[in-house]
Amino acid sequence: MDRFLIRNNKKPNDGTQNSEPAPKKKKYDESSVKRKQEAFASNCLEIAKVASVSSKALRALYAVSYLVAKQKKPHTIAKCLILPALVKVSEIMFDTKTATALQSIPVLNNTISRRIEDIASNIVMQVIEQIKLTKMFALQLDESTDVSGEAQSRTTGEELFKVIDKFFAEGGILWDWCLSVCSDGAAALTGKNNGLMAWIRKKNPKVKWLHCIIHRQALASKRMNAHLHETLNKAVKTFQARQEVHMFLLEQKSAFSSLFENQDWVCRLAYLADIFDKLNDLNLSMQGFRTDELSLNLKMCAFIKKLEFWLKKVQRNSVSVFPTLDKFADNSEIDNLNTICDCIREHLIKLRDELVSYFPSIMNQDRTQDWIQNPFVEDVTSSSGLSDKLTENLIELASDRALELKFQNVTVSQFWLEVKGEYKELSEIAMSALLPFGSTYLCEVSFSAMSLIKTKHRNRLSVQNDLIIAVSDIEPRFDNILAKKQPQVSH
Description:
- There is one protein chain.
- A three-stranded parallel β-sheet has the order 1-2-3.
- It contains 22 helices and three strands.
- It has four domains: 36-134 and 445-491, no CATH class; 142-211, no CATH class; 217-364, no CATH class; 374-438.
- The longest helix is centred in the first third of the chain and has 41 residues, at 30-70.
- By secondary structure, it is an all-alpha fold.
- GO terms for molecular function: protein dimerization activity.
């Protein structure tokens, strides 16, 4: 170890020996110090400015990427249109410096794609958080083909289950939290042995399956007698323009021109125009992002009751409930209105019977869930079907004037979520009834969005991230996304 030691053989300076002169203190020019301090401060300011511009450019990049995906546009539109437009507008309305700053936003195709992926992941994360918080959820499922005509996934129930089960496993979602699944009647989804529902019930036997109400309504509405079906096939939606169509057919010497001279045929056409308007109104009323099984069943129940009313009117040879036919009958001398009413009555009876067969439980007048739709209705507790303790809680809730005012200003679902802290059990029962989807409307919206995103010119695109942003109404948490990213200065 000695070889690593440095020995000092010098004697200590006791002041008698010559010592080295002390170094002279350097004299600093105060003005020089001040200049250096100002230069340093200026450099710090420039660094802060660069970091600020870069951070703003990154936030702007995410904002542009979000809009591109939300509007279902190609990713290249950011570089070829959006940024050039922003630069040009800034040059005209502001100055060149602002336009130059905008050019620091990196809008390359791959960059936009990565930002869209970040945003989609954030939205999915929020959905998973909400599911874990409430520990209850519902599904709606349907299948579609892409622009190339190929299904988006393997169509067997087992493969569909594997895709969903993998997502749940990665997100920490339990099948025990699933209340219901809404779909059409496709075998891949509802098959008893190998359908998706069979696989789901192996995980959770209590999951309820719901046949899409809009799909059932469409199936029931297809049935009609031979005369009406023939009329429909020959001329749908032509009644309002029947005179122009008639003249055109006469000029073309078409054999179909004689149909518009047949009073019975025109009456049937007028009735079809009316009844399909009513069916379309029903269909539209059941569409929407926030519809549930309870509300859709109530709409269908109301429509069946209207059918009964229309049937009674027609049985008295009155067509006043069908405005198009009624107007035509008033303006024309119809000799055989009775025959027309017989035809209409036959159709209404068949339509009613078909709807009842597809919705057997709707007309049972089960009042035990009325309190969920409106807990402030008088005597709502008399048929609630709740335990004594929960009935007392419901009475207490129904007597709260402040909650009644709140109920008038929010949706039913929002109301029950907001009172969960005070009335937890009532809220959970209500939400378990309101949560199940009544239709696959959101699937149809997604299919429409997919057809706009994945066109024949973009048929190699993986649509998942763009589709999530396009159809979701969840606002991305941009601050959280940006906190994980390091802004880079664009040169």
